[in-house]
Amino acid sequence: MVEEESLRVVRCGGSELNFRRAVFSADSKYVFCVSGDFIKVYSTATEECVHILQGHRNLVTGIQLNPRNHLQLYSCSFDGTVKLWDYIDGILIKTFIVGCKLHALFALACEDSVFVIINKEKPDVFQLVSVKLPKSSSQEIEAKELSFVLDYINQSPKCIAFGNEGEYVAAVRDFYLSVYFFKKKTTSRFTLSSSRNKKHAKNNFTCVACHPKEDCIATGHRDGKIRLWRNFDDEKKYTYTCLHWHHDLVMDLAFSVTGSSLLSGGRESVLVEWREAAEKNKEFLPRLGATIEHISVSPAGDLFCTSHSDNKLIIIHRNLEASAVIQGLVKDRNIFTGLMIDPRTKALVLNGKPGHLQFYSLQSDKQLYNLDIIQQEYINDYGLIQIELTKAAFGCYGNWLATVEQRQEKETELELQMKLWTYNKKTQGFVLNTKVNMPHEDHITALCFCNAEKSENPTLVTTSKDGHFKVWILTDDSDIYKKAVGWTCDFVGSYHKYQATNCCFSEDGSLLAVSFEEIVTIWDSETWELKCTFCQRAGKIRHLCFGRLTCSKYLLGATENGILCCWNLLSCALFVFRPSEPRPLYIQKNISREEVQWGVFVPRVVPESFTSEAYQWLNRSQFYFLTKSQSLLTFSTQSPEEKLTPTSKQLLAEETLPTTPFYFILGKHRQQQQDDKLNEALEDELVQLPLTENIPAISELLHTPAHVLPSASFLCSMFVNSLLLSKETKSAEEIPDDVSMEEEKESVDSDEENNFTEQVQDTNNTDLGKDIIHQLSKSEEKELRKFRKVDYSWITAL
Questions:
Q1: Calpha distance 48→366 (Å, rounded)
Q2: Residues 694-710: pLDDT tens digits?
Q3: What pLDDT score was predicted for residue 354?
Q4: What is the SS3 assignment for 29?
Q5: What is the strand order of the sheet 500-505 is part of?
Q6: Between β-strands 573-577 and 400-408, what pairing exists: parallel, antiparallel or unpaired?
Q7: How many CB atoms lie within 10 A of CB 153?
Q8: Among the listed residues 471, 457, 462, 420, the one whose alpha carbon sits nearest the alpha carbon of residue 441
Q9: Whole-angstrom Cα distance, residue 717 to residue 789?
Q10: What is the strand order of the sheet 621-627 is part of?
Q11: In terms of DSSP H, where are the helices of 422-534?
Q12: Which of 6, 508, 668, 693 is the most core-located residue (most Cβ within 10 A)?
């Protein structure tokens, strides 16, 4: 039984992994990224999430390794705190209370403080300040000592960079570059031509990076150019050179650890490496799938990490080869399809990359795969009207998938296409079966399958603003071999030229409910006759849903006025109520800081055991809901850290062992112990039988000529006896007299047969003991002796 107090709202995934730059551990085994209120720790080798660091009460805005201890991690948040973590064990060490919103975090090895970006009075004015971290044994410490560094800066951490081992800090905003020198305590400012000059209209700074060893600053710009600044300690003698490959704005820059190369990325989805900062020495890693928003370099210099606009991290080797992909929930501009559950994989399905459906695992919080629906190359152009995937529905226990895509430049130029996909067991994916151009004359508002268990022929219903609903059935669409099937329209219905807005089948598939604006109609699915209408004017119907199991006689509808309608189909009675008025089963306030847009129930593999009436609605299924920023939340009794699989935590523990000479000895010893335990477990589970080629009775049986073999009754008895297992080899003296007498009765009068018997018996007594493994009790031995007395003479009749 689960306690009521333990049920709470937890973030289970979907947060942005690309909100800030990822950070590598010192040994490059792990990569850290912010994820909403959490910090996630991933293995760079296996892509597994090994830890979730939770403790902040608001959005995490920055993470940095502790320069003085590479096994610790700093983080800052909008909750006004800087936290220090032990990321190996997932433990919060200290919390420094600053008291104001923190937008970014930077840490230097030579400082006993950290640098943060804070908001000062006006909403668009940001400052870079130094926060001294007091030393104390307590876990929560106030850090109120702030030192001003730079003013009028951008809140994005991509616009701040520390250079030449912390000698100076560079900041960019709009058309300005500011450089503050810590030793001199002076600031140099540089300005580019503003947008008033059309020739230099896109000179805006977008990002900045500093050379780790030299006095060199690289800046990215809106026009796609990269400028390398030198001699910037003098405002009159400064110089800069330009590198240009990107056709659109430069999203991020990063120098390698040694400074020998510069990395850049943008909307082209191409990582560019500028070696020796020269225009001619360029290397490319193309087709990364989405806009590069951040670039990170590991402290060891062997790995890069790119963060992408489709909520993805790509781990890249130094030779520009991608080695791992960590894919989160893809952030689409609009979720037209709503939230669906794949009946086969139990994955969450919704709009993903443009023109794709994404299948997202709710258990492991990562994407399983993408299904390309539109099957056209996506062109990243803001002025271009794209084809949109607007509707999708699963049917027939996941065997069929229906999708609708549309494109409309003008009111009279609607391009509409419906596709039906069948699940292929060989490829373990969906394959296009039928494509219907312009299935309706106007926008499709809903589609649903008949998922009744007794349904013989798959049926699909679509509704449209053209005032019609259409019934599509699967028919023989084959050639002479009768092996192909396709979908065709079987019936078209309407009601007084009203727009059809929603549709839904009853659980047994006998009835179809179709809403026409404020009117609900009920149709017989066998004859497609109109049975009844519900004309109560409660508002335009937005959603329809039949009840299930004992509530299958009820039909629920939600209107645009925030009213729920419930019809009893047996008595045709109507119940109209607002969600806030009747007594609800469960109420949870303040579940999210932002608007909840979608929700879905997911059947549980193992039912819960809530006994309280308020929680019993969660026993058979779990409720997930999606917020405006596409954070995925649910009601659960486990925190995100507790939901991690044991294999992920074991992986983390094994990788933390140092590779010392003692480790190799200890590692081999532990591995040997694990192998021994595994072998013992297998021996306990399996009864090992001796190999047939080592049993003398079988060897004699197979190699002796047929015309000199003894009778079949004797051979059968001998063969069965050879398969019996005992503790140890029995000598002739240990064999009881009654057994010897029984064997003599079964012998044949012929002298040749007697001699053969003695030879075989002696061989069995000497060799069979080598193959004996299983230990028998005394009772089992008695049962086996009785078994040996059984008469097998019936085999002679075969």
A1: 9
A2: 566 666 666 677 666 77
A3: 86
A4: coil
A5: 500-505, 511-516, 519-524, 530-534
A6: unpaired
A7: 22
A8: 462
A9: 9
A10: 8-13, 632-636, 621-627, 596-603
A11: none
A12: 508
> Which tokens belong to 691?
């190999």
C-alpha distances out from residue 411 to 184, 190, 408, 497, 498, Å: 64, 50, 7, 20, 19
Q: Which of 136, 139, 130 minimizes the C-alpha distance to 110? A: 130
Question: Which of 624, 14, 544, 29 minimizes the C-alpha distance to 300?
Answer: 29
- Taking the C-alpha atoms of residue 313 and residue 333, their distance in angstroms, rounded to an integer, is 19
**pLDDT, tens digit, 9 for 90 and up, residues 125-161:** 899 999 999 988 899 999 989 999 998 899 999 999 9
**Residues 44, 324: contact at Cβ < 8 Å?**
yes
pLDDT one-digit tens code per residue, 478-516: 666 666 789 999 999 999 989 999 999 998 888 999 999
Decide if 626 contacts 598 (C-beta within 8 A).
yes
* Number of residues that make up the chain: 798
What confidence category does residue 656 fall into, taking pLDDT thresholds of 50, 70 and 90? low
Per DSSP, the chain holds a count of helices (H) and strands (E) of 7, 53
What is the C-alpha to C-alpha distance for residues 182 and 568, in angstroms, rounded to an integer?
76
User: How far is CA 107 from each of CA 10, 157, 460, rounded to the nearest angstrom?
Assistant: 31, 12, 59
Q: Could you give the CA distance from residue 523 to residue 730 in angstroms, rounded to a whole number?
A: 82
Residue 563: count of CB within 10 angstroms of its CB: 14
**Is the model's pTM score more than 0.70?**
yes
**b/e sequence 699-731, b meaning 16+ C-beta within 10 Å:** bbeeeeeeeeebeebbbbbbeebbeebeeeebe
Distance (Å, whole) CA 778 – CA 791: 23
Residue 729 is given by DSSP the state P
Instruction: Considering only CA atoms, give the Rg of the chain.
Output: 37
Q: In this structure, are residues 22 and 296 in contact, taking their beta carbons and an 8 Å threshold?
A: yes
Cβ-contact 541, 517 below 8 angstroms? yes
98 within 8 A of 131, measured Cβ to Cβ: yes
- Reported as a single tens digit per residue, the pLDDT across 330-352 is 877 788 998 999 998 889 999 98
Q: What are 244's two structure tokens?
A: 């240009």
Q: Are 241 and 227 in contact (CB under 8 A)?
A: yes
Question: What residue type is 238 in one-letter code?
Answer: Y
Give pLDDT, residue 15. 81
3-state secondary structure of 270: coil
* SS3 per-residue string spanning 410-435: CCCCEEEEEEEEEEECCCCEEEEEEE
Whether 232 and 187 have beta carbons less than 8 Å apart is answered as no
Question: 518 near 501, Cβ under 8 Å?
Answer: no
Q: Which residues contact 290 (CB under 8 A, 6 or more apart)?
A: 269, 308, 309, 310, 312, 353
* Amino acid type, 89: D
For residue 576, what are its two tokens?
């109209």
Dihedral sign from CA coordinates of 700, 702, 704, 706? positive
| Residue 734 phi, psi (nearest 5) | -85, -10
Q: Where are the beta strands (DSSP E) in 467-537?
A: 468-476, 485-494, 500-505, 511-516, 519-524, 530-534
Closest CA to 217 of 247, 238, 191, 193: 238
Tokens of 689: 């039988």
Distance CA 516, CA 501 (A): 6
Question: What percentage of the chain exceeds 90 in pLDDT?
Answer: 43
- At residue 506, what is the residue type? S
Contact 534, 519 (CB under 8 A): yes
